[in-house]
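Why does residue order matter? Because the sequence determines the fold. Keep that principle in mind as you read this record.
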Amino acid sequence: MIVVAVGAVLASPAMSQTQAQQDRLDQVGRYVVTAPICERLGMTVDSELPNKADAGVTAETASWKLDGATLERLKNEAVGRQGAMFTTDLEAASAAAKTDAQLRALRTVLLGYGRTCVAATSDPIFSKLILAPPGYDLERAATDMADSMLEAGGLASWQTPGIQARGDLMMLAGTCRAKIGAARSDALVREFGSTNDPRVRGYYKRSFDEGLADQTIISTLAGCNRAIQRNRAKIGTGAR
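Structure:
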């Protein structure tokens, strides 16, 4: 059975398979490991993919003349190798995404995995297990996924300095609500939290809720007034 895991790769060399067979098993492993990302990129992934892929590989490799134990080991080694590379690439890119250039790098990594997903949709084994919707736009899907990973840090592609400043002010409206009063808090939300963009609206709401959940961030009314004034000034500079 193909195991979806990113654990240690077995060290024993595989001597009995050809290079073409090894390449095919690596390709299968790559599709299995990437499948969860395919789903996050907007594709439909069969819930039984590991088992069905395993059955497909067993059928496809029937003519390879490898004994069952060897084939099982080779399959799991291939998944292990691909899983290790996948984890290293994605975690490194995500953790490093602190600047606009690094944000673009994360999107590039996701595009690469998205291309693997697209290739899987025409593979003999995976074409019925990983499906792209009609009119699928990989560029848009990769951008949206990168944004979802980086929104909390203010690095999503749509988070302009102005939007970030308003998000900070929404957080202040929440955390300072008990000190400035509900009326003034609501007024800040009405003045600076209005938008027709559902992504931005959700960001403002989450920012407000995060502030409301911890009203000890700023301990005094004077501190709240200073913070609100600073953020109003940021918005007043014309940042978009």
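The longest helix spans residues 68-96.
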